[in-house]
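Notes from the 1:1 (GR / supervisor)

We went over the backlog. Supervisor wanted to see one worked example end to end before approving the batch request, so GR pasted a single chain during the call. The sequence is below; no edits were made to it. Supervisor asked that the structure be written out right there so they could see what the output format looks like.
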Amino acid sequence: MRSSLIENVSGIRSAMERQDVPDEVPVADAVEQQQGAVRPPIDDDTPGSDPGSPPLEASDGDWQEQRETVEFDPDDDRES
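Structure output shown during the call:
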């Protein structure tokens, strides 16, 4: 019975037999355990978010102000 439930949920025939799936394992967990552990490759060249959009933690006004270019003032006597 448990084996047929796993087949119906996953849409593929499960390799698990009745004795491999204890009764206390929920069907969804058993199906998830049968899936491969494949993760998409990480692309270091692609940023995680769009650089043209504001970060979630910043307001639109603050974000736009931070993106403005500040011109160098030769008369400014402050030390770096």
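Supervisor's comment: The two ends are 75 Å apart (CA to CA).
Batch request approved.
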